[in-house]
């Protein structure tokens, strides 16, 4: 996809065609050279953002370890307890997300993050002591899930809004892409680290490690102060907090750019995320590719995603964010279709690379677009709506796809999902406000 679109010359500068063409030819190389120089010499991201990112990624490492330990301990009690422990995280998170976003906008995202880290630091220390003394009874695992879900409901919207408060709008694509690369690295290493720690020290040891990461993140948050604080707001009565939470939905879906962006995000969460986590293992079993073949596809997807996000970290957005995001869904849908029709594991690996590139393009451009388009008074609430849209879509489609595989097979379900992804991308391209938004690009 092209990176930037030249603006037409002003009408008052009209000249004979040959002279105009000559000027365009003469001006084209310097403009391109300036663009390349700008990509090479972009200023570094603010130090406050980089420190915040270190804290957040450190906390993600601890969370990955604890989630693995929680799932492992719950699995020892059977599938029913394992499902209950995971549902104990998801349910309060979904129910309280909008309230969490309203609280973040009312009392400041930084205060919410500090409070959440302090609460989880205290809870994980208590959990470590209880697990060391009592083991892993089901009630303790479910209670842990509830605590994580409640804190996440307030923490995620506030955390999602912090890049907008720490960096300038034109640097959001680079900032969020760097965060995404860090998240990918944590995701790849968190599972093995969790397995090693659980083998050595069980749930108690994992909880202690998580407590250490929360302590470090808390120190970072106390030191980091936002550059952009947003408009001052009157506190208002606490009884209106639910009204403020619902107002986040109204603002998000009334905005000409946010509305199609959130719809695209919902389609990506519902029809793209389950492909590798749910459908690929089932497809690999159907076609005899084995676990190694499925693992290669997942690895190829990760490579494609990381390459794209690193490119955005280096040079900024690769074009108009709405246009690239919609086109990325078309590309990812084509990759899913190729995966569904792949005759063997080698072709499936190439399809995984295409899916990763599409996923990387989408994630690196839709996140900055949503964050930059949100009104300053509703930053946390719009992030809450974003997380809620993703969570509900993923929760719904995991169950729909699972039932569909039982009825028609993984290949047919993948073809259906690919067609819907491509259709969603084409619908996004038809939205003029989304298609023409230039967030993160130089002013014309």
Q: Work out the helicity level.
A: over 70%
Overall shape: it is: globular
Largest sheet: none
In what range is the share of β-strand residues? Answer: under 5%
Enumerate how many helices there are, as a single number.
Answer: 15
Q: Give the overall pLDDT as a whole number.
A: 85
What's the β-strand tally? Answer: 0
Radius of gyration: 23 Å
Query: What is the assembly state of the chains in this entry?
Result: single chain
Order of helices and strands: HHHHHHHHHHHHHHH
Distance N terminus to C terminus?
19 Å
Structure, explained:
The chain is mainly alpha-helical and 444 residues long. The protein is 82% helix and 0% strand. It has 15 helices and no strands. It has helices at 17-40, 47-75, 79-107, 109-134, 138-166, 172-223, 241-254, 258-271, 273-287, 290-315, 321-341, 345-373, 379-408, 410-429, 432-436. Helix 3 runs antiparallel to helix 13. The chain is globular and about 55 Å long. The two termini are 19 Å apart.
């Amino acid at each position: 996809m092209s990176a930037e679109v030249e603006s037409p010359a002003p009408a008052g500068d009209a000249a004979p065609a040959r002279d105009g063409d000559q000027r365009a030819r003469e001006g084209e190389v310097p403009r391109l050279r300036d663009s390349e120089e700008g990509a090479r010499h972009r200023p570094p991201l603010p130090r406050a953002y980089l420190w915040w990112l270190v804290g957040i990624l450190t906390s993600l490492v601890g969370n990955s370890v604890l989630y693995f330990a929680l799932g492992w301990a719950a699995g020892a009690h059977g599938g029913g307890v394992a499902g209950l422990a995971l549902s104990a995280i998801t349910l309060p998170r979904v129910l309280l997300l909008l309230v969490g976003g309203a609280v973040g906008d009312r009392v400041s995202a930084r205060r919410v993050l500090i409070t959440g880290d302090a609460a989880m630091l205290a809870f994980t220390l208590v959990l470590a002591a209880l697990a060391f003394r009592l083991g892993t009874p089901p009630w303790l695992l479910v209670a842990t899930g509830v605590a994580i879900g409640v804190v996440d409901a307030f923490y995620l919207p506030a955390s999602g809004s912090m890049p907008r408060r720490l960096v300038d709008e034109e640097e959001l694509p680079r900032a969020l892409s760097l965060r995404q690369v860090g998240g990918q690295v944590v995701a790849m290493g968190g599972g093995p680290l969790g397995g090693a720690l659980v083998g050595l020290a069980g749930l108690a040891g994992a909880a202690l490690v998580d407590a250490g990461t929360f302590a470090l993140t808390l120190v970072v948050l106390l030191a980091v102060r936002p550059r952009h604080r947003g408009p001052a707001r009157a506190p208002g009565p606490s009884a209106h907090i639910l009204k403020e939470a619902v107002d986040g939905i109204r603002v998000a879906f009334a905005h000409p750019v946010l509305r199609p962006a959130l719809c695209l995000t919902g389609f990506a969460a519902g029809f793209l995320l389950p492909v590798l986590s749910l459908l690929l293992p089932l497809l690999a079993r159907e076609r005899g590719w084995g676990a190694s073949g499925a693992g290669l596809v997942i690895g190829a997807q990760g490579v494609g995603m990381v390459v794209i996000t690193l490119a955005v970290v280096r040079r900024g957005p690769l074009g108009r964010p709405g246009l690239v995001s919609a086109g990325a869904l078309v590309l990812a849908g084509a990759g899913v279709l190729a995966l569904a029709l792949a005759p063997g594991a080698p072709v499936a690996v190439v399809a995984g690379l295409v899916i990763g590139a599409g996923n990387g393009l989408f994630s690196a451009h839709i996140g900055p677009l949503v964050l930059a388009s949100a009104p300053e008074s509703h930053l946390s609430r719009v992030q809450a709506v974003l997380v809620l849209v993703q969570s509900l879509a993923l929760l719904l489609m995991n169950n729909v796809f699972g039932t569909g595989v039982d009825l028609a097979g993984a290949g047919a379900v993948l073809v259906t999902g690919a067609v819907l992804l491509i259709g969603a991308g084409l619908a996004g391209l038809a939205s003029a406000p989304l298609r023409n938004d230039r967030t993160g690009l130089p002013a014309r």
